[in-house]
């Protein structure tokens, strides 16, 4: 086993969190029960905030960054996991309070591990990553709301060309929904059509402040943007429709009124991937296994080496990354 290995570590530099590459040994890792050889990780918006220093994601330092990892169990002190098991870890505080996936080896609590679904390779599981698994959680929440299942009216996906958006469009289209994509990047329209979107809305249209109740357009929505965009989406949702709120790429505020909720029965469903219980995770992975077209997944994914992460982090926070990025940590 490699004695020294490379990791991307966030540490304190004059009171600021700064990311840099560092050589670690197994003795540096936390004393958790399962040692995993990490083969792939990924890049999510939160990783961008953590690595670029634009958001205070790490709540203790030093912190190995990376919200996700996929790899192979090397050693386990827990009977549920054995050497050679292929595993995926999404969230559970990685990169915030727990050391994460931007490293060749990591020690993890057994309860954080998900067995790699048979449908996917380790690399594909990271092409999905937290962004894709969150898109599946959002669909799970919308379908559980019940009132939109099999509805043929339009479902809106905001932040469409990003990670959550791209996977959401692909999954919704495969499940028979009519999908409209909202993007600020007109150059991605062909890409978004390829994923299954059939309608398009300029994101500037949704970002401008609008009325409390607007013309009804959407039976459901998956929103990665927040702020005025989410307020407008709620105000444009049909009677008994539902909006799954996942993100804050446009802002963490919500300048909305209660009108869509009390006059149209619109539901606002919150999505939290980090500490979602296993049953929800399993249902989300089942949706991915059932409905994610692997060619579409490949079309939305690029692979990058660990060494490119500092630049990639800047790019995702600037809204320049299209689809999903797999990080090869080998
Ligand atoms: P990406 O950066 O890949 O996608 C975000 C997309 O939002 C961009 O591609 C862009 O889409 C759009 N966008 C970016 N900036 C703005 C802006 N200022 N105003 C309006 N739209 C904007 O990120 P992810 O897909 O990884 O994550 C999306 C969001 O979901 C993030 O806020 C992230 O923190 C959150 N998230 C939450 C999770 C949870 O558990 N709730 C889990 C995973 C992610 P386009 O170019 O098409 O307009």
Automatic annotation (TrEMBL):
Keywords: Oxidoreductase. It comes from the Bacteria. Transmembrane segments: none annotated. Residues 19-327 form the Enoyl reductase (ER) domain. It is an enzyme of class 1 (oxidoreductase). PANTHER family: ACRYLYL-COA REDUCTASE ACUI-RELATED, SHORT-CHAIN DEHYDROGENASE/REDUCTASE. This is Acrylyl-CoA reductase (NADPH). It comes from Rhizobium herbae. The lineage of its organism: Bacteria, Pseudomonadati, Pseudomonadota, Alphaproteobacteria, Hyphomicrobiales.
